[in-house]
Queue: 2 jobs
Job 1
Amino acid sequence: MRILVTGATGFVGRYTVAAALARGHRVAAVLRPASSGRELGALLDHPGVEAVRVDLRSRAALVDALRGADSVIHLAAAKSGDFYTQFAGTVVATENLLWAMDEAGMGQLVAVSTFSVYDYKALPGGSLLTETTPIDADPVKRDEYARTKLLQEELYRSFGAGHRTVIVRPGLIYGRDELWHALLGAELGPRFLRVGAKAILPLLYVENCAEALVLAAEKLAEDPSPVDGETINLVDDDLPTQGRYVDLVSAVMEPPASVFVPWPVMRVAADALDRANGMLLGGRAKFPGIVVPEKLHGRFKPLRYTNAKARRLLGWAPRYTTEQAVGRAGGEADLLAQLAAPAGGLRTDG
Amino acid sequence: MVDHPLPTAPLTAAVIGTGGISQEHLSFLAGRTAFGSVTDRVRLAAVCDLSPAAARYAADTFGAPGCYTDVGRLLAEVQPDVVHVLTPPSSHVPIATQCLEAGAHVLCEKPVTACRPELEALLAVAHRSGRRLMESQNYRFNTAITTIGAAIEAGQLGRVREVEVRIALPVTDPGGRFGDPNLPSPIHAMPAGVIHDFTTHLTSLLLDLAPGVTWDRVAAAWSRHGDNELFRHDDLDALLVGAGPDGAVHARLRFDARTFPDVFTVIVRGSGGTAETDLFQPYLRIVRPRPGGSKLSPIVNHVVNGFGMARSGVRNLGQRLVQQGQYEGLHRMLDLAYTALVQGAELPVTEADMLAASGLVDQLLSREVAL
C-alpha cells in the first residue's frame, strides 16, 4: 500500500514513516516546500519513500500530490503560534486536505486527533476516560491547540460521513528528545513547576503510536467495517504515575531543577484565581494556562485510561512497555536510530 | 451615479475575510466594544471566507446569521448595506468593486490599493455606484494620537516643526506570517513588499499630525538588511521636508525589522513643545510650557510626565492581563464611520485622507526619491 503521511518531518511523522516502511508499505512523505527534510535523515533516501512538497494551507497542487496514494495518515497540525496561526495550520490545512482527497477520489483516512479534545473540567477525578467521554462543547477557555483540534475533529466527522475514516486520539506521545513533557508541569523561569506525582499519565510511546497508526490504515484498506467511522483512543498498557515516570526518565536524562506542588494545592489555587477574576475583572483577565482551571484539569487531573477499543478494533498491542520505551528513547535501538546506522536495515524488535 | 436614499438604521454589515484582523471588526459588529452596544447603528448579517471552516468559525463566534464562501452569493442573498473587506491587499480592488457595484458601502483594510491611480479608479466606481469607500486608518483614532492631535489643535506644542513615525517589527522571522517561505504572503507582491502593509500607518499618521503640509522634498532609502530572500525590502528610512501654513516641517518615516523591542513610536516636535507616544505600549509624554513660567515648567513637566508614565505602566499591565491589543482606535473609527453612514455625514477617513496617504506612499516609492 502507498500511504501518504502528512506532517512527515514532525516527531510522530518520522516514526510513522519508519513504521510504514517496516510493515512493507511505500510512503509519500508530505514536506513543506521550503523544508530540507533533514528531520527525516536517511529515511528521505529510502527507496520506499517519496517526498511530496506541498503546503496544506493552500489548495494549490494538493490534488496532484494525493494521486497514487491508497491511504492517508494525517498528522500535520500547528502546535504553536496564536489562534489564527494554529487555525490555518490545523483547521484550514485539514479542510484543504479533505477537499483534495474528495477531488482525487480518495477515501481512506486515518485522522489523527488528540486527548486534548475531552472536557476534563467536567470529569470527576478518578473516572475512566474512554472514547465516549464527552468532548469539550464550549472550549473558549482552552488553549489554541485544543480549540483548533476540536474544530479539526468536526471536519473529520463530516468527511467520515462519506469516506472511510477512523479518528485516532493518541494520549501524550513521548520518545527520543521528547521525554520531559507538559503533563509533568510547566516552566517557571529557570525552574520547572512539577504538578502532582500520583496521577496516572495517559502516555503513548512514539513507536507504539506509529505502529497503531499504520495498523489503522491497513484495517481501513483490508477490513474497513469494524473501524470505519470509529473513534479510537491510543495509550500504552502499563501507564505509570507522574512520580514513577520521572523516576524512569531520570535514568536516561537529567531532569530540570524543579519545584513540586501537589495537584490539590494547584487545583485550589487555580479555582481561587478564577473566582477572583470573575468577581473583580468580569473574567476578562487571561492568566498563564497552568493556573486556568480548564487547562489545568486537562493536564493534571488524576484519571484512568484504557486502550481496550484500540486493541479490539486494530488488533494492536503496544510493542514496548514504558520501561523498554524509555530505554529505547535514551539509547540507539529505536526505528530511526536503526535507519541512521550504516547497515540501514529496518526491523522491529518483538 | 446611482441615487440611494439614506439607509435606515441599523445598517446590515458583512465581513469578507476572516483572518487575524477580522476579530477586531467582528467584535465591534457583535457589540463587544469598550463603549457598549452599537446595535442601534449596525447589525452583523454575514461573514465570508474562501475557507468554509474559517467562515463558519467566525459566524459561530460572533453571531453572524449568514456564512458564505462566495462573495457574489453573499451580496445577492444578504444585500448588505456595508461590507468590511479584510482580505489580502492584492484582492481588495476586485472585491471592493464587486461590493460597491452591488450597492454596498465598503470599509476596507489598508492599503486599499497598491497605488494612488488604482485608488482613484476605485473611488470613481464608488461615485458611479453612489456608495462610499473608506480605508481603515485605525491608528489615527487611538487615544494617544487623538490626544496629541488635540494638543496640536490647542496650540500647546506651538507650530509643528518635526514629526517622526517609527515602526519596528521582526517581520522577516521565517516562523512569522510574512517571513514563512513555505506559503509566501501575497503582500510580497505589493510595490513596497511587506512594508506596504505598514506604509498607510506611517503616512496617514504623518498627514494627520501635520495637516496642510505639501511634502515637496522627499528622500527614501529602501533596503533589505536581513537574509530572508522573500523580502524585496525589510527597511525603510525616509526623510521628508514640506511647506506648511506655519512654515517648513521635517518628517522621518521609519520601518525596521532588526531592533528590539517592537515599537510604534510617534513623536511630534513643535516650536512650543514636544509630544511622544508608543502605540504598542501606550504612554503619552508632553513637554510644554506649564503654569509657573520658564523656571517651574521643567519641574512641572517632570512631575506630570512622571505620574503619566506610572499611570500608563499600570494601565498597560492591566491591558496585557486582559490581552487587549493596540486596536482600541479601530473600534472608535468604526463607531464614527457607522454614525456618519446613518446620518449621511462625512466619514472619519475622508477620500482626501485616503488619496493623500496613498499618494505619499507612491512618492516614497518613486524612483526619483530613492537613496
Job 2
Amino acid sequence: MKKTAAQLREKAEDRYPELDAVLQRYKGRGGVLIKALQEAQALYGHLPRPLLIHIAYELDVPLSEIYSVVSFYSFFKTKASGRCHLEICSGTACYIQGMEDLLDYLAEELSLRPGGITADENFSLSTSNCMGVCSNAPVLKIEEELYSEMTTEKLQQLLKERATDDG
Amino acid sequence: MTDRLQRGGDVDEGQPRREDSPFYERQNRLVLRNCGVIPPKIDAYLENGGYEALTMALTTLTPEQVVAEITRSGLRGRGGGGFPTGKKWQAAREAPGQHKFVICNGDEGDPGAFMDRSIMEGDPHSILEGLILAAYAVGAVQGYIYVRAEYPLAVQRLEAAIAEARAAHFLGDNILERGFDFDLEIRIGAGAFVCGEETALLTSVEGSRGDPNPRPPFPVQKGAWGHPTVINNVETLANIPLILLNGSDWFNRIGSAGNSGTKVFALAGKVRHTGLVEVPLGTTLREIIFDIGGGLPSDKKFKAAQTGGPSGGCLTAEHLDLPLDYDSLEAVGSIIGSGGLIIMDEDTCMVDFARYFSDFNRQESCGKCTPCRIGTKRMLEILEKITSGQGEEEDLPRLESLAVLLKNASLCGLGRSAPNPVLSTLRHFREEYQAHIQEKRCPAGVCPALSRYYIQEEKCRACGLCARLCPAEAIFRDEEGEIYRIDAEKCMDCGRCLEECPFEAITGGKKRKKAVQR
C-alpha cells in the first residue's frame, strides 16, 4: 500500500525545529524547493531521508519529487561528511596540472575515494567540476578555504595538520 | 581578485604597477575595467561612471531605442552561443504578454572558465546595471540572477549589490521616478552543468530538476513560467552599460567585422602567466599565449589549446595565427564558448584529454533524451577501451558515427556538442589515436596501460649501452643487428635506459603529471 508523506513522517523520530522557521517562509510558494533544500543542508550538513520526509510533509511536495531534485544536483548530499571534508577540483586546468595524482595519493594512503569517507570518519572526499580558480590549478578546498597549486607533498602535510587539529 | 590570480611580474621590485606588466599592457580591459581596481561597492561604482548609462537611457531613450542601439553594436552572446543580443531583446520585446522576465546566466559551468566569477565578485553592479537596462528594453518587471553554488562569494557580493541598488532607487518601484518598476532575486544553482543551457536553467529557476526542453518555443517566446524571458550571460550584460554610454559606433571599432567588442579568455594550463585576458575579438592565439601569457613553462613545445570547454574543440600549432572570434573558430571545428582557454604541451595525451571530456559529458548528461544519455556513455567506453590498450581499428569509425548521431539527435546543446572534443582531437591528432590502437603506445606517456619504454628506430645507433645497463636484461639486439629493442614482458619500468641513452632514442614510461611547473 502506498504510504503518504504524513505516514512516513510518523515513523521519523527526528524533528527539525530550526528548519521549521525556514519552511514557514516557503510554504505554499512555487519554485522554492531548491532554496529550501539548500537552507536545510546549510543547517544540518547533509540531507538524510527523515529530513527529506519532513520537508515533503511541510511543503506538501511528493517525496519522489524531492528525491528527483536531490539526486539530480551534485550539491545535495544524502550522506554525512567526515570531520574534515576535502573537495578536489576536477576542472580541465586542474586535470591538466595533475589532480589525478592527488586522488591516487588519497586512494593509496587513506583508501579514500570520491564520495567516500575514512573508517575513522576523519576525512571524506568529493570532486568538484570547476571551482573557477583555474590559474592556481590544481586546487583543493576544505570548507571555504582554498589551497592552490597542490602537490602530493603539500597534501601529505595538510592531512597531517588536519588529523592533529581534529584529534 | 584577478590581480591575485595573475602570476609572474617582477616581485623583486616590490609591487609592480599593473599597466607595466606585459600581461596587462597588451590587454584591452573594458568589461574587466573595475575588477580588482575598485571595491565592489555602489559608491565606488558610481564614482567610476556607474549607473550613468541607466540614468541616460531612462531619461533620454525609449526602450525601442535601447534595443536598436544594442542591435547596431553587433554584440553577440558571450556565454558561447554567439547569438546577437539585440535580436534576442527585440524578439522578447515583440513577444505578446504582460509579464516578462530577464535572467542573468551566471551558471558558469565550463570547467576552465572563470571570467563570470571574476565579474560577479569584482564588479557586481555592472551586471545589475546591464540587467536593469535589459529589463527596461524588453519591458520586464522581474529578474533573476542564476549563480552556481560553487561561487559563494559571488552570491554574497551580488546580494549586497542588490541591497545597495535598491536603497539607491535603481531597483524597485518607479526607478529614477520614470515610472519603471523592476526588481531582482538571486537563484543559486546546485551543481548541474546542464543548467547553463537556457531551457534547463529555466526549469531550475522554477525550482525543479534542471531538465532541458525542446526549442522552439524559445525562451524569448515562452520562458520562465511560460512568459517571454531573456537570458543573457554575465559578460554580455556587463558590456551593455559600456555600449550605451560610448555608443554602438565606438563598440564596432573594437574587434573584427561581425565580431565587435572584446572577449575575456580564461588562460590556464601549461602557460607561464595564467589569468583572465581581455582582448578585442580577432586577436590571435599566438598573441595571447606568447605575448600576454609569456609562452609555455620550461620551454616545452606548444601542442594544443582547448577552447569552449566540454562543448568545444582544440586548436593546434597551425592555428596559432588564427584570429580568435566566433566565426573563425567555428570554421576550424571549435567554438569560442564561454572563453576557457587551456594550453597543453607535449606531455598531454590528446586521446586521454578527449576521454576526460567524454567522462565529464557523460556525468553531466541529465538523462532525459536517449541519444545523449546512452551516446555519451558509449563514447566514453570506446575511449576507455583505446586508452587501456584494447582499441581496435574499427573503433575510430565507430566513434565518428556515434558523434554524428549525438549531434543530430540530442535534445539540447549539451548532447549536441558533447562529441566536439572527440571529433576535434580525431581531426587534428588522429596519429595519436593510431599509436594507441596499432602500436599500443601512448606517445605522451599519460595512459598508464600504454606507457611502456620504447626505442625509436630512427634514433637508435645500436651502441648497446642500454642493454648493458638494463637490470632486468629486457633489452636485446634486433635480429638484423641494426637497432636494439625492449622486451615489454621483462621491462620493470625503472627508466635507467631512458636516462642514459646518449642519443635520446628512448621514450615512454608513465610521466607523473604532477608538480606544477612554471
